[in-house]
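hey can u check if this looks right to u? its 466 residues, i copy pasted from the old doc so theres a chance i mangled smth
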Amino acid sequence: MLIARQKLNKLQNKKICMLGFGIENQALIRFLLDKKINCEITICDAQKNKNFAGTRHGAFPQNKNINWQLGKNYDANLDKFDIIFRVAGYPLFSSKIKKAKMVGVEISSPTKLFFELCPTKNIIGVTGAKGKGTTASLIYHILKKAGKRIWIGGNIGIAPFEFINKIKKNDWVVLELSSFQLEDMAVSPHIAVITNFYKEHLAPADPNNPNYHRSLADYWNAKMNIVKWQKKGDEAVVNKNLELRIKNLELRTKKYFFSNANKDADCYFIDNNVIKIQNSKFKIQNFLIGEHNKENVAAAVEAAKLIGVTNKIIKKAIAEFKGLEHRIEHVKNVNGVKYYNDSFATTPESAITALESFNGPIILLAGGADKGSSFKQFAKEIKKRVKFVILLNGKATPRIKEELLKIKYPKNNIKLVNSIKSAVKTARENADKGYVVLLSPACASFGMFKNYKERGIMFKQEVKEH
C-alpha cells in the first residue's frame, strides 16, 4: 500500500464529522476503519426512517467509535468537531459551516482527501455542465483498451475510496467531478477536462441534496478549480467555446481545445465520422446520437492522445463504446416508433441538445421539479421540433406550459400527466410510424421520482412492456 502513513496520522485521535451518509462518506468510513485510525466518528444525516436505520446498522454494526446524529437537527453543533467531511450536497455557505470554520474546524470532503492520499499523480479530472459522465467513461474505456491500469470514480456513482487501496504508483485514475465536489478544492488533477459550461445548479432542487450556487459566477469559479491549481507540466483539455473565458484565468498549464466542428481547435470533427487531431485524421464509427456527443468524443480523444494512446486503439475503443444509461439512450422500436430515454437531461439546455439530435417528428415527455431555470428558449425549440408535449407533474411544469402558450404552441397538443404509465400511454396514442418518443424532462425529478435514474428506469420498463 503506497498511501503515506504520516498523511493519515493527522486523523488520529480526532473528532470527525461525516456530514451526510452518502456513498462517498460510507466508503471513507470503511477506509478509516480498515486503516485502524483511532478517531471518533459521528455520522450526521437528515434521514432517520426505518429503511435508513436498517442500512446504517448493517453498515458498521457495534462499532463503539461511531456515533449517529440523525433527523431534523442532524447538522447541529458542527463546531464541536475537529474535521468535517462534507458530502457534495451540503452547502458550503451554510451558517453552521461558517461558524465551525470560525472556531478552527477543518472543512474537508472525501474528494479532497482522495487527492491528498492517492498513490498516483496520474489523475484525469472531468467536469462540465453536461457530458462529463460520458466523457469520463469514454476516457476510461480508451485507456483500458490501451492496456493501462485505470480506475474510474467520483460523481459517476463510484466512490474513489472504494478502490484507493488497489491503486499503484503508475496507474491512471479518471474522476467525474461536479461543481459541488470542486467548489472548495485547492488542488487540481494532472489532466483537467472541461466539456462545456452553461447555467445549472442556481437553485436548490433536491431535498436530500440542497446545495446550489448563489450566482453564475460562483458556479464558474467552482468549475474552474479543476484547472486553477494545476502546476507546470499539467495539461487542460477545454471546449473551444470557452477559450476566451479560460484565457482570463492566466493559467500556467498547457491548454488544448476540442470542438465538434471548429477548425481552430486542436481536435475537431471534419464531418460526421472523421476526426482530426495533431495533424492526423482518422475515421471513427458515429456511435452516439447528437452533436454534443461529438464534443464528448473529441474531448476524450484529446485526453487519450496526451497520454500517448495510438489512433488505432482510440478508433477501436470508440467503436465499442455504448454510451451511458439515461443519456439519449435508445430503449426500443415499437411499430415504427423509436423510444429514447434522456432522463439525465435535468436542464433546459441539455433537453434542447437532445431535441436537436433528431430530424424527424418528436413526442416529448418533459417537466418536473424546479431548479430556477428559464424555459423560454426550450419552448421555442419545442415549437420548432415537437408535435406533441406530455408534461410530467411538478413545480416547474406550469412554467413550461406558460412559455409554450405564450408563443402560440397548440394548447390541444399539450397534456399534463401524473405518472410515467400515463405518459407512455399518451405517447403511444399520438405517435405515428417514423416518430421519436423522447423522455428529456429539462427538470429535476424530485416529487414524482426519487431521482433521474428512477425516472429513466420506470420509463424504460413501461416502454418495454408493450
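The first strand starts at residue 15 and ends at 19.
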